[in-house]
Every structure is written in C-alpha cells, then in structure tokens.
Design a protein that fits this description.
globular, 5'-3' RNA exonuclease activity, TIM Barrel, DNA polymerase, domain 1, Pol/histidinol_Pase-like, alpha/beta, PHP_domain, 38% helix, single chain
Length: 284
C-alpha cells in the first residue's frame, strides 16, 4: 500500500515520526509519505526509525493562498531538504502562524469563548508547526467542544467568522520552489468543499504552467462526484493521480491506508524528481 500524505507531532498529528513509521509498517504500508505542514523537522527521526523494507517519501504540505484568497495545500515530495529557498518559504509560512493564532483567539474571546494563547500552547507539542488543530485540541480540553471535528465544523472552518488567514505563498510560487529544489508537487484535496472555499477547475491551468505534477484525487473529504471531476481534470492535463489518508493520528478519523496511490502512478511521480530520494533501510 502506498500512502503519500501523513502528519506527525512536528505539525498537527498526534504520533511522533518514530511512532508513525512503526504504525505504517504494522499496517502494511510499503511507501509512506511524511508531509508535515510547512516543516521538515520530522525527517531525521522518521528516517532513523526505519527498520524494515518500508520506503519513506520525505516532504511537506505547504500552506498556500491564491491571488483571490482561496486556501490551497500543496504537497511537496522528494525535494532537497537542504535547499535554502524552500526552507525560507516554509519558515516564512510558520512565522505568520503565531499572530494569526492570536487573532483567532481574540475573535473567539470576543464571542464569549474562554480560550487563551496559553491554553493553545499547552496543547501544542514542542517544535510543532502551530495550526488550527492545536486550537481545536485546546477547545476540547476546556470542554468547549467534544472533538477536533466538532471544532472545525462549528468554529474553525474557513467560512467561520472566527477564521483568520495568514500570509502564504501562492500555489504557483510553492510549486516553483518545490520543483527548483528537485522535488515533485501534488495539490492536496483540492475539491474538499466541506473544508470551505475551493479552487475552480480553471485554476489548474496556471498550476500546470508552474510545474504541478499531480492531483490528490482519492481523499476522505472528496465526494464521489468531486473525485470524478478531479479524475477528469487529471486525465485532461496528464497529471499523476494520487490517493492518501491524510493521517493525523487520533487528531482525525482518517486511518492509515484508507486511500492509497496506484503503484504505476507512484512510479511515474517518483520519476519526475531530479534524483532518487526515497529513503529505505533493508533488513539484513
């Protein structure tokens, strides 16, 4: 099984990179993609955790914003982690998350919700990329909501009055940075309408011109109609089709391997990187 989109405590997952690798191996995953939000800090621990023929695809999920203000997540995989430009792009995105979080908390408090930045800090693992899931965890801990899913459905989704965007690269800029660093780019869950505003089909032309390699078609948050629409877009633009769990540990209902990528599609995607960067440690 090939699962190219998972998260750890280095962003908003609940499993450490070590635990993620162990769980993936136990679940029968053969190719695992690590894509923490705007961060590569989990790469070393995940690499050191390899103990079987599991193949590790290192990457990051880059937070982007289109020119007309639509949030887009771009999966960058197989890029050179030492590339200065992409590390600056990731760092800049992380740096804007703290003032954004303060403003969201301010909005919630103005509406009568008893939540503070200190509450969120206590729910954020050390070194993690700060994000809405940590605010959701704080809301759960204070019994304001019952779960992360409820927090996002009622308070933290993109259409909520409490939502605040943050400065981000355009998806085109993110794609160009990923490709310049030798990697490949796949747009994550682009038609997941229940998350909020989504891009239009016409946007894909600009993304392809920037160097987009693939579309994450098979995802829990895509309806059957949305999957069919994305498959048609992928075929018309000759883009790789992927499927992934978007696993976050106990932070979401998503389970490892619940959506996967066909091996032929994966091999095609991997061949588009400028060199082979899949990490593997064979058992002796």
């Amino acid at each position: 099984m090939i699962d190219l989109h998972t998260h750890t405590t280095c962003s908003d997952g609940t499993d450490s990179p070590l635990m993620l690798v162990k769980k993936a191996a136990a679940a029968g995953i053969t190719v695992l993609g690590l894509a923490d939000h705007d961060s590569t800090s989990g790469w070393e621990e995940a690499t050191n955790a390899l103990h079987s023929d599991l193949q590790l695809v290192l990457g990051s999920e880059v937070s982007c914003l289109t020119e007309d203000g639509v949030a887009v997540h771009m999966l960058g995989m197989l890029f050179d982690g030492k590339d200065d430009e992409i590390q600056r792009l990731l760092a800049d995105s992380r740096d804007t998350r703290i003032p954004r979080m303060r403003k969201m908390i301010e909005n919630l408090r103005a509406a009568g919700y008893d939540i503070t930045i200190e509450d969120v800090a206590q729910s954020t693992p050390e070194g993690a990329t700060l994000g809405r899931p940590h605010l959701a965890d704080a809301l759960v801990k204070k019994k304001i909501v019952k779960s992360r899913d409820e927090a996002f459905a009622d308070l933290l989704n993109n259409d909520s009055p409490f939502y605040v965007t943050h400065l981000s690269p355009t998806p085109e800029d993110a794609i160009r940075a990923i490709r310049k660093a030798g990697g490949v780019s796949v747009i994550a869950h682009p038609f997941a309408s229940r998350r909020g505003q989504i891009i239009d089909e016409s946007t894909f032309q600009s993304l392809v011109a920037a160097g987009l390699n693939g579309i994450e078609v098979y995802h829990r948050d895509h309806s059957e109609d949305e999957r069919n629409q994305l498959m048609a877009v992928a075929r018309s633009l000759d883009l790789v089709v992927t499927g992934s769990s978007d696993y976050h540990g106990t932070g979401k209902l998503n389970q490892l391997g619940e959506n996967t990528t066909d091996r032929q599609e994966w091999e095609r995607l991997e061949s588009m990187a400028n060199e082979r960067r899949v990490v593997q440690r064979w058992m002796k």
